[in-house]
Amino acid sequence: MKVKFLGITGGAASGKTTIADLLLKDLQERVSVLQFDRYYRDQGHLDVEKRALVNYDHPDSLDHELLIKHLDSLSQGSPINAPIYDFATHTRTEQTKKIEPKEFVIVDGILILAFSEIRERLTFKIFIDAPEETRLERRIARDMSERGRTEESVRKQFKASVQPMHEKFVQPFRDSTELIIDGLDDPNESAVKVISFIDS
């Protein structure tokens, strides 16, 4: 079985993970999902105050070398043990999650196209396009409920690093993808479009 890597990218809180989850629900045993968010570098060597100052929206914050190694293992038919990241402490936990090679492996992440070594391994590249204000409001809701953040800290980070890094490392790759999805569209309809695209 040849593994096909489906890269889903777009700005922070554009709807990538929602669509990835719907694809997992619809395609079931045909697909595995691998989030690039799992591969943030461990910041445990830094004081807690300094960890908060790291630019987590810059490609340097991600362990892309490990992701590439894992993509190659999946491509060869071997399961991987993907890291689990604690966003509250900015550290990698000791636990891992086993990801099996399937017909499709969704690689979900803001910065997946910022690395040429990742781009060249992707069979399909899909961009979820959503307005800045929509992404900010979604990011606030998500990070407050799932990552222990305050609204003020999310807004500050979005203005200081999320949006500037989006304009530098995410948006420039929009037109190089094979399929662009409107992040304001119904996610279920968007998932159907993606399935139709990859199965055609």
Task: Describe it.
Helix 5 packs across helix 6 (151-170). It is globular, with a radius of gyration of 16 Å. The mean pLDDT is 95. The protein has a 5-stranded parallel sheet with strand order 2-5-1-6-7. The protein has a two-stranded antiparallel ribbon with strand order 3-4. With 200 residues, the protein is α/β, with parallel strands linked by helices. It has one domain: Rossmann fold (3-Layer(aba) Sandwich), CATH 3.40.50.300. The protein is built from 7 helices and 7 strands.
Provide keyphrases for this structure.
single chain; 200 residues; alpha/beta; two-stranded antiparallel ribbon; 40% helix; globular
Topology, element by element:
Blueprint: E1 4-10, H1 16-27, E2 31-35, H2 48-51, H3 64-75, E3 80-86, E4 91-99, E5 104-108, H4 116-119, E6 124-129, H5 132-146, H6 151-170, E7 179-182, H7 187-199
Parallel strand pairs: 1-5, 1-6, 2-5, 6-7
Antiparallel strand pairs: 3-4
SSE series = EHEHHEEEHEHHEH
CATH-derived topology: Rossmann fold
Per the principal axes of the C-alpha atoms, what is the gross shape?
A: globular
Strand arrangement, largest sheet?
2-5-1-6-7
Brief digest:
The chain is 40% helix and 22% strand. It has 200 residues and is of the alpha/beta class.
